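User: Could you check the structure of this?
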Amino acid sequence: METRSSGDKMFDAVNMTLLGIISIIVLYPLVFVLSASISDPAAVLGGDMWLLPKGITFEGYAKVFDNSDLLNSYGNTIFYTTLGTAINLVMTVMAAYPLSKRDFRGRNVLMGVMVFTMFFSGGLVPTYLLVKQLGMTNTFWALVIPNAVSVYNIIIMRTFFQSSIPGEIQEAAAIDGCSELRILRSVVLPLSMPILAVMVLFYSVGHWNAYFNALIYLTDRADYPLQLILREILIQGQMEEMVNVGDSSHAKTLLDQEAIKYAVVVVANLPILMLYPFLQKYFVKGVMIGALKG
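Assistant: Sure, the predicted structure tokens are below.
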């Protein structure tokens, strides 16, 4: 049995200590927000609650789910995220697959044009005018079409196809009479679950957290995504619609606002936190393989 040197043991001890500290730094805000969302707001404001919940109450969640605007925006965000991620995934696969073919003429020129757009763009005003002329303002298309594909993700997926999908398998399928679309559907995609999972996570998180496009393209409040409502609640301080502003006690209003603030943060981030564990086993493998070669 191989014996480890004292230097190796010390190296492992330092690594474990650093990883433990980093884990605490990352986990503490999450635990604090979750605990604060179900704690007595007075204990949170007074600093008595610093990790575990105190005076458990679900009043904040009750007020959140009683707010029709927030529930409507929650549904809008789920719709935008689902549709947008599906469009992103299809567009990325359809762009990356032909670019991964070494016998595809002009692929380097196309790749160069795509990469150019990563560094230079028309800017906000021309983009807005284009979206407006296409009639997409104040529609959900304005949130999913302008960002339908990411060049960075195309590069990662193209590299995965080149380095992880054996060319011999694709050639064998072609000899058997499969078309390119059949090869993509029946051979390439089933072998690409790691990178597809990574793309789903990247795109879905981007859509879920996006608010700027909605801010400039949407004017109808009924179409607002969740992040715009959160912006009003957490940044603009417009929580009065969700609390009893007629209450003579200003302190009671502050306590209600504190409860709502943490409850909204938990509700807004819960779907993404629930999605990650299902994709985590593919995440590291997909990113590392997709980044091996240029």
